[in-house]
Each structure stands twice: as C-alpha cells, then as structure tokens.
Amino acid sequence: METPNNIANQKLPLQGAGGLLVVLGAGESGTGAAYLAKQQGYDVFVSDFGAISDKYKTQLSNWGIRFEEKQHTEAEILSASEIVKSPGIPDKAPIIKKIKEKGIALISEIEFAGRYTDAKMICITGSNGKTTTTSLTYHILKNAGLNVGLAGNIGKSFAYQVATEQFDYYVLEISSFMLDNMYKFKADIAVLLNITPDHLDRYDYKMENYTASKFRIAQNQTAADYFIYCADDPETIKGIAEREIEAQLLTFSIEKKVERGAYLDQQDLIINATLEHFKMSLNKLALQGKHNIYNSMASGITSKVLDIRNKTIRDSMEDFQNIEHRLEFVGKISGISFINDSKATNVNSTWYALESMSNNVILILGGVDKGNDYNMLKELVKQKVKSIVCMGKDNNRIHDAFEDDVDVIVNTSSASEAVQVAYHLATKGDTVLLSPACASFDLFESYEDRGNQFKQAIKEL
C-alpha cells in the first residue's frame, strides 16, 4: 500500500446531537443524511414534497425514521434546530423562503456529514467533466491501495458512508447546488475543472453568482491544502484574480507550459506538481479527446500530491473505463456506432462530446432547455453533424438554432422513436450520438433513465 504525504486536515470537533433535525428531500442524499443524524442521536424527521421511492421508504421505515411525502408539514419543519436540504431544492421554493425568514440553519448533506469524519477530502467540481475526473481519481487511489470512498454527486450518499464506513480518504464529486449550503466543510485538495454557463436559472441568470458558487470549494482551505485549476479556462482565471485563495495553487493547461501542475509536451502529458515528475504518452490514455486530457491532468496532479507512484497512475490511466451515460459506447449495428452521452445536460458537455467525434454524426438533442445558448455548437455541428433528431416536448429553440446548419431536423417524443429515426437517417460508418444538451425531466425521470431507455431501444432495433 502506498502512503501519501501528510496533508494538514484541520477538522471541526465532532458536533453532538441537539434537538430536531429535519431533512428535506428523501433521495440518496437525504436518506443518507437522515441515517447519519439518527446514528448521532438526533430526533430526525424527513419531508419530501414529492413522492418517495419505495426503496427509500423501506430504508427509512427499517431505521425507525419518521417521514412524510407529497407535502411539507410546516409546523414541524419550522421547529427544527437545523435543516439538511437536498441539493435539488431551489432557494425559491416556498418552504426554503420560510426557513430563511425564521433564521433556521440550512445546510447541505456534505456540510453535515463532514462533521463526523476526519478523513482527507478530495473535492472535485466544475461545469463539465467532474464525474469522469472523480471516477478516475478514485480509480487511481483505489489501485494505489488507499482506503478510499467515492461519494457526493456519485454513488452512495456521503453521509451514509460516513455512518457505516471508516475511510481514510473520500473523493467527492460536488455540484454548485451542494456548495451553496456548505459553510465550515473544508477540502484538503480542491479541484475546479472549468466554469461555463449552467443552471443559471438557479443563480438569477448571473454568471458571477454561479462562479461564486463554484469557488466555495476553496473556502476554509489553508496554506497546507491544494487548489487545482485549469489555466485555460477564462472564467476560472477571472475568478482567481478576484479572490485570495490560501491554498497552494497547482494548474493544468494544454495550451502552455506551467510552472507547477500539468501541461503537454507535444504528444506527452507532463506533471511537475512534485519533485518527481510524471510523463505519459497521450495515445496511452484510456480517455481520449481534448476534454479528457484536462480530466486526466486534474486526476494526475491530485495523485502526485498524494505521493502515488508513477507506475500506479500510468496503469490506472490506461485501464480506466468511463462511467455509464458519459460517452458510453453502446454498440454497432449495420456499421453504425451508437454512443450514450445522456449525462450531457448542458451545451458545453455536448460541445465536448462533438469535439471528440469524427464526422458523420446523427445527433440526438433536446429535453428541458435551461436557457441554452446553442451558438457555441454551431461550428462543430456544421463540420460533423449530418442530421439532428430532437427528443423533447418543445424543440423550437433547437430548430431555430440549427436550421441553416443541417439538412434534416426531426422531432420525436420518446427514446425508442428517436433511436429508430436516427438509425434510418444513418448509413454505414456513421455515429448516432445521444448528447442532449438539456435536462431530462420532460420525458424521463433522470438522465440515467434517458440513457437506459436509449440503450434499450438500441437492443430492440
């Protein structure tokens, strides 16, 4: 087992239970937080304004935790000493406004769970690439023999793992929604991959508000910690110039050589974050495409900071398999390739997907449009896309954006119909790419549901 170097980890003293703790939202995050709170001696009440899945209802019942669904009992919620909020609940929700008016502490699951572990925290955020980077970093650390957990926006709830496991490290994928209610939690290693417009409806349509949310990942860091960021990302560079970050700064770039971090030397990835440098040929990386070089750089720097051996990093980067629903190769039928990128819920993600494709793409777009600006896709669409298949209830903005760039734009209303239409539009050598650039909630339960229906439809061709 490899022993990482010592990263200072100044945690707050563990806080004991006190009074009623309410958890809003009974998904993976909320149910895990409820379990941890119960373990720590709190009186726990879970409230979900929507329906709770049978899986989580069974868990809450088995744990003896009170819960309600399809309503919020305000009298009970507003009597809480503290409230843990699901990241999916917006600040404009009526119950959140009332909680704030009453001055009750409102925190995220990450904030709550962080109180009850002294594990080292490797926290990864960004508009795009965070799930891949988090998974790759975890893969490297696991291969190095470290006792490490994977949580946040991925896998089992962080709080549930804190309650049931004894990990020395956590690799956490952290969204801006989680960061918004994070106050005293500290990342030992913070990674900010990029900042591009996303979820602006949650930030008063102001980019500076969204940027401020992302930079919360660096709050509470000390000079003994690390902040890893992309030197090629304009919003990140602008944000750093406007802030004082206490942590040691490490950068990565594919455009220039950096003093301390990661960069390209022709076809080699170089990491010079520590005294022992790392070098690897780009063509050996399991993850290909420009965006994945950035993801690999961020994971590589993190691994070097933790003193993981070069061979372990190299082997892990060679044999890593990408996550489900992120540029996932589904199969080939009649010489036509099918790729599931359902996790691309914003325009920038779809840009990255198209950037990694060769020509002759049948692109499946559409869903809940979050105020998308499709202009950044236009050049790639002109170069690489033969036809667009829309999969959503309202496709007008997609038609308006691309009607001059492709010959065929077809509307469909299900994954099955979209796959069948795309298959008939494609010829041998083409690629059918599901990369919607939109949220999934008009036709599907989640992006996972959308991706799974896409894959099932391919099986039925």
TrEMBL record:
Reaction equations catalysed: UDP-N-acetyl-alpha-D-muramoyl-L-alanine + D-glutamate + ATP = UDP-N-acetyl-alpha-D-muramoyl-L-alanyl-D-glutamate + ADP + phosphate + H(+)
The protein's enzyme class: ligase
EC number(s) given by UniProt: 6.3.2.9
Record-linked InterPro entries: Mur-like_cat_sf, Mur_ligase_C, Mur_ligase_C_dom_sf, Mur_ligase_cen, MurD
SUPFAM superfamilies xref list: MurCD N-terminal domain, MurD-like peptide ligases, catalytic domain, MurD-like peptide ligases, peptide-binding domain
Pathway linked to the protein: Cell wall biogenesis; peptidoglycan biosynthesis
Domain Mur ligase C-terminal as annotated: residue spans: 325-438
Subcellular location: Cytoplasm
Cellular-component GO terms for this entry: cytoplasm
Molecular function (Gene Ontology), one example: UDP-N-acetylmuramoylalanine-D-glutamate ligase activity
Residues that coordinate or bind ATP: G126, S127, N128, G129, K130, T131, T132
Family matches, as Gene3D superfamilies: Mur ligase, C-terminal domain, Mur-like, catalytic domain, NAD(P)-binding Rossmann-like Domain
The keyword Ion transport belongs to this UniProt entry's keyword annotation: no
Protein family membership: Belongs to the MurCDEF family.
NCBIfam families to which the protein is assigned, alphabetical: murD
Record function comment: Cell wall formation. Catalyzes the addition of glutamate to the nucleotide precursor UDP-N-acetylmuramoyl-L-alanine (UMA).
Name of the molecule in the record: UDP-N-acetylmuramoylalanine--D-glutamate ligase
Species the sequence originates in: Mucilaginibacter paludis DSM 18603
Source taxonomy: Bacteria, Pseudomonadati, Bacteroidota, Sphingobacteriia, Sphingobacteriales
